[in-house]
Design a protein that fits this description.
Blueprint (H helix, E strand, L loop, with lengths): L3 H31 L12 H21 L12
Helix pairs in contact: 1-2
């Protein structure tokens, strides 16, 4: 059985990876929307507005992932 300290370390690692993934996902979405030329853009948002929304998006995603039980530790992977 892992110690509580080790589990907290893994939790921070997983949460950090999720924060990075959300940031990369939002940056990719911004690029595809406004620079990908897939759909014509009539009105746009400035990159500063997206950067201001990033902390809110990260908090919402981490809350949702936690509520889905993705940060719970189990003894076996496929219970």
């Amino acid at each position: 059985m892992k110690t509580r300290f080790a589990r907290v370390g893994w939790l921070w690692l997983f949460a950090g990876a999720d924060v990075l993934a959300v940031g990369v996902g939002l940056a990719t979405a911004y690029y595809l929307r406004f620079h990908g030329n897939l759909i014509p853009v009539v009105k746009g948002y400035s990159p500063e507005e997206y950067v201001r929304m990033l902390p809110l998006a990260v908090v919402i995603w981490l809350f949702w992932l936690n509520q889905e039980g993705l940060y719970e530790f189990r003894e076996r992977a496929f219970n």
